[in-house]
Amino acid sequence: MLSVHVYSNKSPITRKSTKEVRIMVYDNDYNSDKYLLKDMYEYESASINSNIKWDTFEEIQIELIEEGNSYSDDPYNKRLVKRGPKILEVLKYRYDKETGKFHPTPDPDKP
After folding, report:
1. Of 20, 47, 52, 69, whose CB neighbour count within 10 A is largest?
2. What is the pTM of this model?
């Protein structure tokens, strides 16, 4: 089971602030404490959504997207709604049979 959760200690969560994104893949037994992937990122952003591509077990791709909220009245959200969503980052993970865990796949375009 894969989960992507976004947390913020500032209200409302739609406002631009520091957001913590937690990504986890649990073992088949959901009650198990065994994680196949446990990762965390921080972004300075408004609302964050994700697109997940997991076609084969061995590879996961998660696109993190900053989206504007039309019900939020702050100027930053209004600009985001007008311009459309912004890709924050594309994360890639590959399963390692030796460790039994997913590990980040280096992005060749990043220094």
Report:
1. 47
2. 0.86
